[in-house]
Amino acid sequence: MSKGKLAKFADMERYENVFQYPFSVVEQVPFEMKGRWREMYFHNDNPIVLELGCGKGEYAVGLARMFPDVNFIGVDIKGARMWTGATQALAEGLKNVAFLRTNIEIIDRFFGEGEVQEIWLTFSDPQMKNVRKRLTGTAFMERYRRFLVDGGIIHVKTDSNFLFTYTTYMVEHNHLPLLFRTEDLYHAIDIDDDTRRILSIRTYYESQWIERGKDIRYMKFRLPHGGPLEESGREIPVDDYRSYRRQGRSGVEMRK
Ligand SMILES: C[S@@+](CC[C@H](N)C(=O)[O-])C[C@H]1O[C@@H](n2cnc3c(N)ncnc32)[C@H](O)[C@@H]1O
Q: Which domain of life does the protein's organism represent (predicted)?
């Protein structure tokens, strides 16, 4: 039987790989590991990679298994989801993965300048009505620049045509170096074996969308420092299917 939310929250309180600092907490208690994750938590000099909006943390845990010499941190505001990844990481003794429960809007409060090498954005909400809430919007890019190394890599994996098209325009308009882009990941032929192995990690949301026959899109680009970033202002067709209530096979609305 799966655990209830209260039991999961109790577990999270005592998990050594979980740091819970939602906005209400970080306003009261300063986050002492900012700029010191390697020294205070990972105890190594390895690069740090974030998964923002990690949900159950499939990428954070999956990548940690594949790359023992890289440190991974899954970030999300939903503790009950994060519990799955945190529990798995502890059970497997993975020392190179941690979880931060907070609001991504304040993510720059947790990492020092140049502390992070790469960011994964996995099946982020496209936020079709509010560009300032979109995790690939220029407002977030400006925030990421505060702690990402100059030219650090951003990976975007999504089912959403809206988010993918928006991000493509944002990258083009700001002349960000595009490293790879495909609109149909599972039928693309120009992918090397290592990248294919990494991209074969499937998240919870990814599995749901694949089941419904949606194409999975992926791109990676660099985010250099310096120079203002601006919105392209181009119009983008919305994802129609997202305007309907999400229905499971049984017709029951799916939990977000
Ligand atoms: C659509 S789900 C995707 C989850 C997971 N990456 C996957 O593919 O299964 C988006 C996730 O981002 C988290 N999220 C969205 N906006 C956030 C924010 N501003 N701060 C923290 N978490 C956020 C949600 O809680 C949710 O778990």
A: Bacteria
